[in-house]
Design goal:
With about 700 residues, the chain is α/β, with parallel strands linked by helices. It has 23 helices and 19 strands.
């Protein structure tokens, strides 16, 4: 067995990080104990003397601090789990390579849901999917753009380009596949199993390898590189394939007949991929719900079937039929990969994860994935710092797997079809029966479906290797859309998690719940807690030397992890500033969850207008950022004036960080442009009414991406 093991230096480094984190964890718990000890006497005195207002204030203060410390402890523990997993990580390269040549390898369908994406973005994603080093694979572009007429202009262009890509790529791959299939057949016909024959065949193969190495090198040289995304695409796909063929040219010894046959088959399989597209909105009896989950569900529900079109009074219907009547055949599959249209996979992604899923001991694995990393090399400040938080989340999710508390991250997950069938339910939409595999109750559909899978005894697995990358929003407006969406839904899913956790009483389930619960409620509790701690006028009795110590080691380790992921240590301060800026955004997502809970309506999706090539931010979040800065600044001065020096200084420090974030991540000029562009559109909807609908009406809706 050929395996890639971490080297000794790497293992020793991991051991150091584990010990350091454990030591820091003890420090954090001790500091928190110090906070509780200081507050205990005050609580008892207030309770005995029936000073209920101050007693409730103390309880509120301790509750907020406890949730913040909860997050810090969780970070320490997931960090330990992350390094423990990396210390034991290895890849079974023999198993991966054997899959490439198995005639009965599990079937794989890669689904790429797309909504109004630019052609260049989709093309790169489709190529990263098509060039997977895995046989029996299909790539399907799920076009969710609404059908439009030529008069629609930009939207019509995007729709036409998306429709044309699969056919263009099919023609490209078909030409190469046919050529190498013919060369393979010629090799089999010659059947020169002699020393001289094998030497001659090896020479022929080397000519092909040289040709392919030069072919991919020319692709790289002639590519019109416009951004760091293009550079990563070239490195991950074309340069990886170029290096594979360059590596084959290093040996001098003739190959055996078995090796020769395998190499010819490799050339065929490299280009043997089916590329197709599907548009659910063409058919009235499929779901038209405006979200990615139902786009995926519509196609997954058709897999393995034969269909024809029928006209009805409502429109075109897609109905099941016999094979000989079929106008549309959708092959069955053993595995799906759901790949966002702005994501990239390394060529070995599928083979590596499927080889893991196919091990007998992993028959209960429902999902395998590598949580996506940020695309490196961004020049834009906000994109780089937002990407840094994504890369830290990658580490946290690896730690979740160590504690059996992984959540599905939908941008690039490998899913076992049998697992999806186990969580399948039937619903009704517009009078039609609709199959639902991935939940769409919230806009974080993969998170809720993770609990459904766990409840059906399916495990989820994060592979400890960076094999997938996704784009990070390049401006504040688009970041608002992403982070508000991430914040919307956790509270709605929490009751389902609690029911799942109460289904079994064991330490393992308790440990799992410790991590899963925080993942769902942390955005709400941490942002509300931070805001209240910074805004409410807590008195001198809350001054504590222990309080800042509870978060000290968290920020030290965070800075260390940033540095180990290729960022600067000083970026920890920029991350802190960005998190302050995102407090109103995160709370906006939380309030959207509350709106859905109160009204029972799914959150609709909407597009945000563009301004000079960037996404305009909602006026609500621009105004909230400035108001929060004013509050921090004025509140800090007032606290110092009243003699509360430490809280006042802390508030002024936060004001400085927030002002930096406004200037650097939004821009003073840009924020004024956004207000000028979008505020007039919102003003008519601002009515002084206290109904539930009006209460939430000014909160922007989410975006389908």
């Amino acid at each position: 067995m050929s395996c890639a093991y971490p080297d000794k230096v790497f293992v020793n480094k991991n051991r150091f990080e584990i010990r350091l984190t454990a030591l820091f964890l003890i420090f954090t718990v001790t500091a928190f104990a110090g906070v509780l000890y200081e507050q205990f006497d005050s609580l008892v005195w207030l309770f005995v003397n029936h000073s209920w207002d101050r007693f409730v204030t103390h309880i509120l203060f301790l509750t907020m601090v406890s949730f913040l410390v909860y997050g810090g402890i969780l970070y320490h523990l997931t960090r330990i789990g992350y390094f423990k997993r990396f210390s034991k990580s290895r890849n079974d390269l023999d198993s991966e390579n054997s899959l490439m040549h198995q005639a009965d390898a599990p079937r794989l369908t890669i689904l790429v849901p797309s909504y109004k994406e630019e052609q260049r973005v989709i093309m790169q994603t489709l190529l990263s999917a098509a060039f997977q080093l895995y046989p029996r694979r299909r790539v399907v572009l799920l076009i969710d753009n609404p059908p439009v007429k030529p008069s629609a202009g930009h939207d019509y262009r995007l729709l036409n380009e998306a429709r044309g890509l699969p056919k263009m790529l099919t023609d490209y791959f078909k030409i190469h596949k046919q050529r190498f299939a013919e060369l393979e057949q010629e090799f089999l016909t010659r059947n020169q199993d002699t020393p001289a024959g094998r030497a001659a065949e090896t020479t022929r193969l080397k000519t092909l390898w040289t040709e392919m190495e030069r072919y991919f090198a020319s692709k790289i040289a002639n590519y019109d590189v416009k951004s760091h995304v293009d550079e990563l695409f070239l490195n991950l796909i074309y340069d990886k394939l170029r290096s594979i063929f360059a590596g084959k040219l290093t040996g001098d010894a003739p190959l055996t007949m078995e090796e020769l046959q395998r190499e010819y088959r490799f050339l065929v399989i490299l280009f043997d991929v089916e590329i197709d597209s599907f548009e659910r909105k063409k058919y009235v009896n499929l779901s038209h719900a405006a979200n990615k989950a139902m786009n995926l569900n519509s196609y997954i529900g058709l897999a393995g079937g034969f269909f024809r079109e029928e006209q009805s009074a409502a429109g075109t219907m897609l109905v099941s039929c016999e094979k000989n009547e079929a106008q549309l055949t959708i092959p069955g599959t053993d595995f799906f990969i759901t790949l966002d249209a702005d994501s990239l996979l390394v060529p070995e992604y599928s083979a590596r994860l499927i080889s893991i899923m196919e091990r007998p001991e992993n028959s209960s694995l429902g999902i395998a994935q590598t949580p996506y990393s940020a695309i490196p090399g961004a020049d834009n400040r906000i994109e780089r710092i937002a990407g840094a938080t994504t890369d830290i989340q990658y580490m946290i999710h690896q730690g979740f797997t160590f504690f059996n508390a992984t959540y599905w991250v939908g941008a690039n997950a490998l899913i076992r079809s049998a697992a999806l069938q186990d969580i399948r339910i039937m619903t009704e939409e517009r009078g039609y029966d609709i199959q639902k595999f991935i939940q769409d109750k919230t806009v974080i559909e993969d998170t809720e479906s993770s609990i459904d899978l766990a409840n059906n005894r399916w495990r989820l697995y994060n592979h400890p290797e960076r094999l997938a990358y996704s784009a990070t929003p390049p401006d504040f407006g688009s970041l608002v859309i992403q982070r508000r969406r991430w914040a919307n839904g956790g509270l709605l899913i929490t009751p389902k998690l609690i029911r799942y956790l109460l289904g079994e009483f064991s330490f393992r389930r308790f440990s799992e719940g410790f991590f899963r619960f925080h993942y769902l409620v942390s955005i709400a509790t941490v942002n509300i807690g931070l805001l209240l701690l910074m805004v409410l006028p807590f008195g001198k009795e809350f001054n504590s030397i222990w309080l800042p110590l509870t978060s000290l080691t968290y920020y030290i380790l965070y800075a260390r992890d940033l540095n180990q992921n290729g960022y600067r240590i000083s970026d920890v301060f920029r991350v802190y500033a960005l998190n302050l800026l995102l407090i109103p955004v995160n709370l906006g997502g939380v309030f959207k969850s509350i709106e859905q809970a109160l009204t029972g309506k799914h959150i609709p999706f909407s597009r945000t207008p563009k301004i000079q090539g960037r996404t305009a931010a909602s006026p609500l979040y621009i105004i909230a950022s400035y108001l929060l800065f004013i509050q921090f600044f004025a509140g800090g001065l007032y606290s110092i004036y009243k003699g509360f020096v430490y809280p006042g200084a802390f508030s002024l420090l936060n004001a400085a960080f927030l002002f930096y974030a406004i200037v650097r991540f939004i821009g003073l000029k840009e924020s004024m442009e956004d207000l000028k562009h979008t505020l007039p559109e919102k003003m008519p909807s601002l009515k002084f009414s206290f109904s539930t609908a009006q209460l939430f009406k000014w909160l922007p809706d989410e975006q389908l991406q």
